[in-house]
Amino acid sequence: MRYLLNNVEVDLVKGIATTSDGSRDIRAKTLAVLQILIQYSDRIVTKAQLLDTVWRGVVVQEQVLVQSIRELREIFGADAIKTHPRIGYQLTIAPVSVDSSKAGQKYSVAAFLSVIVLAMFWVLLSQWWEKDLSSEHYPTVAFLPVDNAMLDDVHATVPLTGLSYLSEQTLQESALPVVTAEHVLTTISHSPWYSDDTAQIRLSHRQEVLQLLERLGADILVETRLSGFPQDMQLQYTLHFKHSEEQGVVFAASPELAYQDLITRLTARYGKPSQTLHTQRNLDFSNEAFARGVQLYLARNYLDAIALLRTALSHSEDPLTVRRYLAASLANQGDISAALALLQQNIDEKGDDSVTRRERMRANLMTGYLLVNWPQADDRAQELERAQQYIAIAHEQATDNADQLFIAYALEELGKIKRIQGRYSEASRLLHSALGYHQRFDAIYGQTNALIELARIAAQQGEMKEAARLFEQAHQVAKASNAIPNQIWIWLAEADLLRQSQKVEQAHRLASRARALARDADDPVLIERVEAWFARASIYTVN
User: Fold this and answer.
1) Which of 211, 225, 235, 506 has its CA 20 to 30 A from that of 164?
2) Which of the 8 DSSP states describes residue 444?
3) What is the CATH number of domain 2-130?
4) CA–CA separation, 292 vs 306, rounded Å?
5) Using alpha carbons only, what angle is made at residue 436 by residues 430 and 440, rounded to the nearest 5 degrees?
6) Cα-Cα-Cα-Cα dihedral of 402, 404, 410, 415, to 10°?
7) Reduced to 3 DSSP states, what percent helix, strand and coil does the chain have, rounded to the nearest 5?
């Protein structure tokens, strides 16, 4: 079903807009808005109608609709859609069937049939939206291999082990029919979207999702991405339906716990016979807005991340995690004061549940980290003392909660402060203690930062052989796990010390190795950090 709008050809099935300059995808929600505007192009479509239809059952702000209208205007022209203040929107240009356009017959049989087909499509779609599943029917779920964003060998098996865990446990713990992992792999193994090297699948077009849903015989296609750090994971998920999609994110200490959280959510949503597939009664829009904000944050698109995270914050019943990501985005955008203010809200948050306790701990640690790495005060000594107070509180909270990962993080930051203050003996003691905690974890590359700090201390004391030994130890730890980000971070630290010693050529040689590895990994975050070194800008970001 294709139409011409302002000389732009749009395919309503594939969700693709094509001009002489090329093609671009249209987001699923934005495509649904366009379909409604085309169907009712002879009248004003109210905002309420668009929100109720496209975001059916989801509590959203009007901003999500404004964003879709903005995207359509970018494609079809600013004058293609007229805003009727406080009422709604209307197409200002008549949609023309591609077939009738080519024939030059405005009222050709093909155009008539296309209108009939479009009308039938919307009747069927409306019925489909309203129809409840029978009491004996549950939606069939298919999981894709987990997209592994952990750049190390420790988590190399995540794609297939994650697929197996999600498929088998969902089948065991709920009444939901689940497409077996074997059938999923057989189906996708010969598709153009699957990579044999990584056991991962990349879906870039809406049409690919529809094809895969049909091939698998599924009602819900679950796409997941695991990222974060050992002991501190996040699992982003996208639920693909035949006519829409939904995103969310869960946090956990391990991949298995993250998978289990997702299974619990799916079971609560769709594991009851009375629950319809698209009646999203239990969906909190803030989770979808939060998930999209996190995606933008990870892509270093901080401005757009800030807008979405603020939207999520206004809806969220549990704002602490949203505040943390919003604070990190603001800090990376340069607004340190606003970031510190948000973190202070988390520090002041009442409550004694585990989530609140951990977020207070994180907020103290992040506040100290910002004060150390982004100096704001004229009195640097006083600022470091203030940072030390926040981090010491975080260390105490982590100790009370027996959170060994954050004990190690706090010890590293306290060691760094002591190094900056020139109190090398205290710094070494704290950093060796941090190393001891990191050595208890499966992912040994967590030792990297402490080893780098110890090497800096040795270099500042003129012990260059000891510094070289510590850097080599850090390299061995990173290489043992094939932890690419850590290898890059070590090279940049070495290059930084060489540049400070006026050994510019050697420094650039090491930084160039880091640049090549970052480009090979095709990771925008790593590339950005390396380029910041060459630009003599801060290579630190809030992770």
Assistant:
1) 211
2) G
3) 1.10.10.10
4) 11
5) 145
6) 130
7) 60, 10, 30
Tell me which residues of the chain have a pLDDT lower than 50: 100-119, 121-123, 125-136, 274-286
Neighbours of 528 (CB within 10 A): 14
Crossing angle of the two packed helices 302-315 and 285-298, in degrees rounded to 10: 160
CATH number of 141-283: 3.40.50
Fold of 351-534: 1.25.40
Bridge partners of 239?
222, 246
How is residue 1 annotated by DSSP?
-
Residue type, 447: Q
Sheet holding 45-46, edge to edge: 45-46, 88-91, 81-84
CA atoms within 13 A on the CB side of 238: 20
Kind plus residue range of the DSSP H or E element containing 334: none
Reported as type and span, the H/E element at residue 16 is strand 16-19
The pair of three-digit structure tokens given for residue 398, joined into one six-digit string: 């982590």
The span from the CA of 462 to the CA of 448, in Å, is 21
State how far the Cα of 300 lies from the Cα of 525, in Å rounded to an integer. 7
Contacts of 481 (CB under 8 A, 6+ apart): 152, 153, 154, 443, 444, 445
Report residue 20 as tokens.
């002489």
Domain parsing of the chain, residue ranges: 2-130, 141-283, 351-534
Q: Which amino acid is at 362?
A: R
What tokens does 48 get? 């309420």
Q: Which amino acid, 69?
A: I
For 455-490, the DSSP string reads: HHHHHHTT-HHHHHHHHHHHHHHHHHTT-HHHHHHH
**Residue 134 pLDDT:** 40
Cα angle value 16/209/30 (rounded, 5°)? 45
Instruction: Provide the sign of the torsion angle of the four alpha carbons 513, 514, 515, 519, taken in this order.
Output: positive
Cβ-in-10-Å burial (0-12, 13-18, 19+) of 435 comes to buried
Both tokens assigned to 227: 């990222």
Half-sphere exposure of 53 (CA within 13 A, CB side): 20
The DSSP H or E segment spanning 91 is strand 88-91
Q: Which two tokens stand for residue 504?
A: 């510019």
**CA angle 296-297-303, nearest 5°?**
75
Furthest CA-CA distance within the chain: 87
Query: How far apart (Å, rounded) are the C-alpha atoms in residues 114 and 440?
Result: 65
Residue showing tokens 């297939």: 160
Contacts of 429 (CB under 8 A, 6+ apart): none
Q: Whole-angstrom Cα distance, residue 543 to residue 32?
A: 35
